[in-house]
Amino acid sequence: MVSSVTDWKLINAWPFDVPLPDHLLVDVGGGTPLFLHYDKPVTAADKKLMWVGTGEKARFYLEEQPNPAYTHFHRLKSPTPDAGHGGAPGAEGYWLIHAAVRPFNSPMSGGDVEPGVDFNFMPTKASAANRGGATPPLPASATQWKWQVDWPFNAPLPEHEWLDLGNDQILFLQYDKPVSAPGKELIYFGMGIRGRFCAGEEPGPAFTHFHRFDAPTAGAGHGGAPRC
Question: What are the pLDDT digits (tens) for 6-36?
């Protein structure tokens, strides 16, 4: 079974040494993080969520940046949180993708930020490991790197927003009420991977739920007939 360094919980102390005080991160298996990024330290009672995201463990080289949506590299070890941005060529760490959950203004992005992938979040310019090396191109995104309610399911799930990261991966936000409802509160955020409803094809133990693309109602989309 795939293990979780964080025991499937959101924590502040992983994977960076020193920790980032305004982040909570969970290892969803194999060292893949999902994270919440707030405007203040996670201990602050009045903190507000700004970004959610994921990352890929790699080295600080152009060729190992997953694609241009992963704008920021943070080293595994640094003397302070701010000192962990970028680093020497080949330093080990995570390339991170940040998706804003609401409109706001942040100096970390150079000004106004709209909901969706933040392509201006603290870019760190890496060097190439080899002559002519380059970052892989940006994949196609069915949601144009924005949050959408009416994709990918027919019928849509009214309390969800989805963001297509390309390469069969998605991020989602799930609220306690429909997305259009005033006063809704975020209760889950997560990652999904496209696949078939077949035993043994689950990405890992954290991926507990399968939802079909097409169903007569939102509630009828859970599971379905095997497609193996």
Answer: 999 999 999 999 999 999 999 999 999 999 9
What is the chain's mean pLDDT, rounded? 96
Residues 99 and 143 in one domain: no
Residue 142 CB-half CA count within 13 A: 15
pTM for the whole structure? 0.96
What confidence score (pLDDT) does residue 1 get?
62
Positive or negative CA dihedral for 143, 161, 105, 56?
negative
Do residue 49 and residue 149 come from a single domain?
no
Counting every residue written for the chain, the total comes to: 228
Please check whether residue 143 is in contact with residue 163, taking contact to mean a CB–CB distance below 8 angstroms: yes
Which structural domain, as residue segments, surrounds residue 118?
1-137
- Residue 70's pLDDT band (boundaries 50, 70, 90)? very high
Number of domains in the chain: 2
Q: Are 147 and 189 in contact (CB under 8 A)?
A: no
Give the bridge partners for 113, in sequence order: 104
Same domain, 126 and 79: yes
Query: Do 127 and 169 share a domain, yes or no?
Result: no
Domain boundary residue, one of 112, 137, 162: 137
pLDDT at 121 over 70: yes
